[in-house]
Design a protein that fits this description.
- By secondary structure, this protein is of the alpha+beta class.
- The protein folds into two domains: 248 residues, Zn peptidases (Aminopeptidase); 91 residues, Peptidase M42, domain 2 (Elongation Factor Tu (Ef-tu), domain 3).
- The protein is built from eleven helices and 17 strands.
- A hairpin with a 5-residue loop joins β1 and β2.
- The protein starts with 6 loop residues before the first helix and ends in a 12-residue tail after the last helix.
- The relative contact order is 0.18.
Length: 372
């Protein structure tokens, strides 16, 4: 006998469907390196346009969809669009390419990875080369991958050949790994940090439209650029929008995998629900609204202490415009800043639901201060 749904379960809005999943896959597979996010932003805007009243893009590429643009009270839901990458830094005379980071790229995972070098002439394929194990065994201490010894090989034998392909110092480089579903349970890919967030806030906009929800305030769905190099896109757009409230979503670490210390990193896991953070930048009363929304809707959640800062765009919004009540909803993720980042399908659904339900509980003109 099928289990009878509870009243709360019956009220749950639909979440990810086949159409939105196809968008998610396309969005993840498209490169959006820091400072070069525009192609991904086009894909994102095309998807959300049916669900919003207006949109704009700022000078550096942050994309904003707006519902009720005439409303004075403004609520932001935000994610960041950029992914870590590399820059061409030096081309040797024999045609090999050395790199520097664009964001927090991990040098240890680079060897043997396939990459795309973005040039004005189009994509040039290359690989991060690495000496064969046979040549590294000889009694001496093995050299580990470092930023000084990882290099790209695009099949050229001279600097002139490399440059003829359109490659120059400053060209950006991304990994070519693609999205997949693992064990019908996890989404896997590069740049789930944090285009998963962009996907989830887009799904919130879709659900509001499909469920014919009329919000009493202006909702700004913000997909910000340049988070990976210091929250820069959020800083810029916060000053333009001047929101009254900001709910930010990003990823956080699943600490249940090997070599992670739960004593220092906390006890968080994929599949156990969204993570609600505690930090100075997180406004306490807004955080309570998130928790109450989760409890009322039967959404599982976890808690995380983030010490001095969250390290996310929450900090940028919180400390802008004389202070904006801000809170953070994080998505647990395994293997951050690798090409095999993993997130649980249930967590994606529940982050979407938590943002959606929280918006339904925000009142027009709500003042979150303790002392008024």
């Amino acid at each position: 006998m099928a289990k009878k749904k509870t009243e709360v379960e019956q009220q749950k809005p639909a979440v990810v469907n086949e159409t939105s999943l196809a968008f998610f896959e396309k969005y993840i597979n498209n490169p959006s390196p820091t400072g070069f996010e525009w192609k991904g932003q086009e894909i994102w805007l095309d998807y959300i346009k049916p669900y919003i009243d207006d949109h704009y893009v700022d000078n550096y590429g942050t994309a904003v969809g707006v519902i009720n643009p005439e409303a004075e009270y403004k609520v932001v839901i935000e994610a960041h669009a950029d992914e870590i990458s590399w820059f061409v830094n030096y081309i040797t005379n024999d045609g090999l390419i050395y790199v520097i980071r664009n964001g927090g790229s991990d040098h240890q995972i680079a060897p043997s990875k396939r990459v795309d070098i973005h040039t004005d002439k189009g994509i040039v394929k290359a690989v991060f080369g690495w000496p064969a194990i046979h040549t590294r065994l000889g009694g001496e201490k093995e050299e580990a991958p470092t930023l000084k010894n990882i290099f790209l090989d695009c099949g050229c034998t001279s600097k002139e050949e490399v440059e003829a392909l359109g490659i120059h110092v400053g060209c950006v480089i991304t990994y070519e790994d693609e999205f997949m579903v693992l064990n019908n349970r996890y989404y896997v890919g590069r740049a789930l940090d944090n285009r998963a967030g962009g996907f989830m806030i887009a799904e919130v906009a879709r659900l509001l439209k499909e469920n014919n929800v009329k919000l009493p305030f202006g909702l700004y769905i913000v997909n910000a650029v340049q988070e990976e190099i210091g929250l820069r896109g959020a800083e810029m757009i916060a000053h333009r929008i001047k929101p009254n409230v900001a709910i930010v979503t990003d990823v956080t670490h699943d600490t249940g995998t090997p070599m992670i210390n739960k004593i220092t990193q906390g006890d968080l896991a994929c599949g156990r629900g969204p993570v609600i953070s505690y930090a100075p930048a997180v406004q306490n009363n807004l955080n309570k609204l998130l928790i109450e929304s989760a409890e009322k809707a039967g959404i599982p959640f976890q808690r995380q202490a983030s010490s001095r800062s969250t390290g996310t765009d929450t900090d940028a919004f919180a400390y802008s415009n004389d202070g904006v009540p801000s809170a953070l909803i994080s998505l647990p993720l395994r293997y951050m800043h690798t090409t095999v980042e993993m997130i649980h399908k249930d967590d994606v659904d529940n982050v979407i639901r938590l943002i959606y339900e929280s918006l339904l509980n925000i009142q027009n003109g709500q003042d979150f201060r303790y002392i008024k």
